[in-house]
Design goal:
With about 300 residues, this protein is of the alpha/beta class. The strands form two sheets. A nine-stranded mixed β-sheet has the order 3-2-1-4-9-6-10-8-12, with helices on both faces. Strands 5-11-7 form a three-stranded mixed β-sheet. Helix 7 packs antiparallel against helix 8 and helix 8 packs across helix 9. The C terminus is likely disordered.
Amino acid sequence: MKPRFSIIITSHNQSAFIREAVDSALAQTNQNREIIVVDDASKDDSPAVLKQYGDKILLAALQINQGTATARNLGATMASGEYCVFLDGDDTMLPWALDVYDRIVELKKPKIILSRMVWFDGPLPAVRPEEVPHEITFAEYEFLIKRNRPYQHGASAMVILRQAFHEVKGWTEGAFALDDVDLLMKLGYSGLSIQILSPNTIRYRIHGANVRHKIAWMIAGLFAVMAREKSGLYPGGPRHRFDRYAIIGAPVRFWIVSAWKAGQYRPAAKVLARGWLMFLAAFARKLGTVVRGHGQQETMPLDPNLGHSR
């Protein structure tokens, strides 16, 4: 029987973190899953660490560094699960993550689930008893592009129906920074999407090598997303341009502010010059939610025994 979830972990020179990432996948209370790890030609101790897991994981060890997008796409081609659950090698899953996703899949059968991350710095914190969730709160959108709630972008916060993932040809090869935004834009009209509002299911690790610290890279990635939008590469056509602009406008605003606070005034001005229409679209959508509200959200219980018998 094929698993419901394929957890796809990608790593490059992350020997300090990769064991915690894999262990967090193995520790899922819901066992209806397979774990695929793609090591992208690491030169540190990562290959030795990963070999210790034996047949507990499906391991692909690349000999030449291919980049994050290629590594994730390779993992997806190896997957047999109904849904692809992406996890970066420096992040971890909370023990109930698959239970939460499974409950949503059983109820809604979505194409995409956007999960909720909590950030941490330093050693991986132990799970406190009060963190263990008893219910799930989520918002439903006919299409992902209609999302009007704040969302912390990240590859580790994305659960995608494998068929839908392959229909949009997966992660864009060669993309690095803002590749998660690019994929969400490609999936914009793939179908029913769920955004988890609580509980947290992913722990995002803050450390010196995070790409989000490299403002120039992030802005270059943002410009690539903007160029793809203006070239008509994202679905929806001219009729739905406002919706796409509103989604891209959120990272436009974020990186204007981030660059400005870092004293990088010229890059901030360049982002504003290229993305002011998107910035305005995001502001208009946000203003609309102030007037009309975000729309309905649902809450359902999380069965404490869900996943233990699988």
